[in-house]
């Protein structure tokens, strides 16, 4: 292994460690409570090291938010891989948006801080758009050829809004479990779909 490739691997590892440390600080303190000092202490590194691997705190925060979104997307993908019907895919998509261990008040509050920052931070706003586009794409894989486009858009918006609303309620400390929340969103889907549509999704 050359010195350059070895150094690159070490740098990639350090960057990953800083991103994961930022993620842990984010989960505990929210976006507003993230500081260079806290991130480096969590990573077990000196405060000055962050500026060596990133242009600034903004860059490590962006990488951390991207990691957080990827964790949710991976939870959905894992469930989709096991689904055998369209309805099973819908269950996997909804359940994946309320992962065990992540659907907690402190994490929900941290997520809200990112949503608030998206109003003025274009990089965060872009990540949010990607996340919502992925949700819509996943839902399209369920309802394609079952619902007309206008109906699909209406139902996709309703389900996405319900998911966001439950995260908001969790942020206030409401005693919602991932199972409760998944069941609530699925009950909305049942209410919006006709019996024939539900039968086609279950086939």
Overview features:
mainly alpha, elongated, 203 residues, single chain
Could you walk me through the main structural features you see in this protein, from its secondary elements to its overall organization?
The protein is built from ten helices and no strands. It has 203 residues and is an all-alpha fold. It has a domain at 61-202: Tetracycline Repressor, domain 2. Helix 1 packs across helix 6, helix 4 (57-82) runs parallel beside helix 7 and helix 6 packs across helix 8. It is elongated, with a radius of gyration of 20 Å.
- Order of helical and strand elements: HHHHHHHHHH
Radius of gyration: 20 Å
CATH superfamily of the domain at 61-202: Tetracycline Repressor, domain 2
> How many individual β-strands?
0
The top-level CATH class of the domain at 61-202 is: Mainly Alpha
The amount of beta strand, in percent, is under 5%
Biggest pleated-sheet summary:
none
Overall morphology: elongated
Structural class: mainly alpha
Which fold name fills CATH's third level, the topology of the domain at 61-202? Tetracycline Repressor, domain 2
Mean pLDDT: 88
Q: What is the first-to-last residue Cα distance?
A: 54 Å
Number of helices: 10
Secondary structure: helix percent: over 70%
């Amino acid at each position: 292994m050359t010195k350059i490739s070895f150094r690159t691997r070490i740098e990639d590892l350090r960057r990953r460690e800083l991103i994961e440390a930022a993620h842990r600080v984010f989960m505990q303190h929210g976006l507003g409570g993230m500081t260079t000092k806290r991130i480096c202490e969590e990573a077990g590194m000196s405060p000055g090291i962050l500026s060596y691997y990133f242009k600034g705190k903004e860059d490590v925060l962006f990488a951390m938010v991207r990691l957080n979104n990827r964790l949710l997307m991976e939870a959905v993908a894992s469930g989709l891989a096991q689904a055998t019907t369209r309805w099973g895919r819908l269950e996997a998509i909804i359940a994946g948006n309320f992962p065990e261990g992540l659907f907690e008040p402190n994490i929900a509050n941290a997520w809200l801080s990112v949503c608030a920052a998206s109003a003025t931070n274009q990089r965060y706003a872009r990540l949010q758009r990607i996340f919502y586009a992925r949700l819509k794409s996943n839902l399209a894989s369920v309802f394609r050829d079952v619902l007309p486009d206008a109906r699909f858009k209406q139902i996709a918006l309703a389900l996405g809004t319900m998911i966001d609303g439950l995260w908001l309620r969790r942020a206030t400390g409401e005693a919602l479990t991932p199972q409760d929340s998944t069941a609530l969103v699925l009950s909305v889907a049942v209410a919006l779909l006709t019996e024939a549509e539900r039968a086609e999704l279950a086939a």
